[in-house]
Design a protein that fits this description.
About 10% of the residues lie in helices and about 35% in strands. The chain has about 325 residues and is mainly beta.
Length: about 325
């Protein structure tokens, strides 16, 4: 979420959203079933799945962590607007081992992905839905060198906080829509082959998550429907989408992320009560990392769900 809107976390139209969220709760299912439209589901609840604390950062630059990625040896983390000029490199104790300046000045970085040995920063945040273009910023995880690839929505501006890059290298962006299904957008080429000039995205479908009764986030009920982050497993066979309260694990046996998001029922894992959870990332071993913004409180821990990919592959 963009920090440039002063105290944005506290200036949500909370009453309106809570009321609308309550209305949603009475009309949409929380149990494991589709609500009837493609890609619309509250997911089937996973049994005996629980996040535990891995470590807690001490770096103040991570108070608004919005994106995570992991190569097994390192955890990469970045904040969103106002704190997204530096990429932080952590070990498995959350100690900072390096910091890299972002090579291109972003507007609002909201997610992070690894593909082809490069880090990709999703400069896709747009709370006011006023941007004429968004961007994906590449970074070498060792040197920090990189550039920006501009993207344009085919149907007007959207806020988005989830970037998915599958085994085929094609980027998929999932938007963050209040009380609406999230849009699924992609391009028909590898992320590494995108030109610097603007490329028009293709709307490939939609996905609707929740609502659920899981506690957490800045807004009750309605916050459980907002897509705040995404990740793809190292082998490309499992996709995670998170909201402020839950994570949804989609099986992707054929590598088609769009088909999985828009046409399958995921496994839903309730997340720990986080003040504003937006970051999610798989480790190469198939565990799932999660982190939250601090929201004027203490730095939040990086939490881990062991064996996350196995949960999805059992369905």
């Amino acid at each position: 979420m963009t920090r440039s809107i002063t105290s944005a976390r506290h200036r949500w139209p909370a009453l309106a959203l809570a009321v609308a969220g309550s209305a949603l709760l009475t009309t949409a299912p929380v149990a494991a079933q589709s609500s009837g439209s493609a890609g619309s589901s509250s997911g089937s609840a996973a049994v005996d799945a629980e996040f535990v604390t891995l470590c807690t950062p001490t770096e103040s630059g991570l108070t608004e962590v919005s994106g995570l990625a992991s190569d097994g040896d390192r955890i990469f983390a970045i904040g969103d607007s106002g704190t997204d000029r530096t990429l932080w490199v952590l070990d498995d104790t959350c100690a900072v081992t390096a910091s890299l300046p972002v090579p291109v000045t972003p507007v609002d970085v909201e997610d992070l992905a690894l593909s082809g040995g490069a880090l990709w920063l999703a400069d896709t945040g747009d709370n006011n839905r006023a941007r004429t273009s968004i961007g994906l910023i590449s970074m070498d995880p060792g040197t920090g060198a990189g550039d920006r690839r501009a993207l344009v929505y085919p149907d007007g501006a959207h806020d988005a906080e989830a970037l998915l890059v599958g085994a085929d290298g094609r980027p998929v962006i999932v938007t963050k829509e209040v009380l609406l299904a999230a849009g699924v957008y992609t391009v028909d080429r590898s992320i590494a082959d995108l030109p610097e000039g603007p490329t028009t995205l293709r709307r490939a479908g939609q996905v609707r998550l929740g609502p659920t009764g899981t506690p957490g986030g800045p807004v009750p009920i309605a916050g459980s429907t907002l897509v705040t982050g995404g990740a793809v497993s190292a082998d490309g066979r499992v996709v995670a989408l998170r909201t402020y309260t839950d994570v949804y694990l989609f099986s992707v046996p054929d590598g088609d992320i769009v088909a999985a998001l828009t046409g399958s029922v995921p496994i839903r894992v309730p997340m720990p009560n986080q003040p504003q959870g937006e970051a999610i990332a798989f480790t190469p071993d198939g565990d799932l990392l999660s982190a939250s913004e601090a929201v004027d409180g203490p730095l939040q821990p990086v939490q881990i769900l062991r064996g996350a990919t196995a949960l999805a592959s059992t369905e």
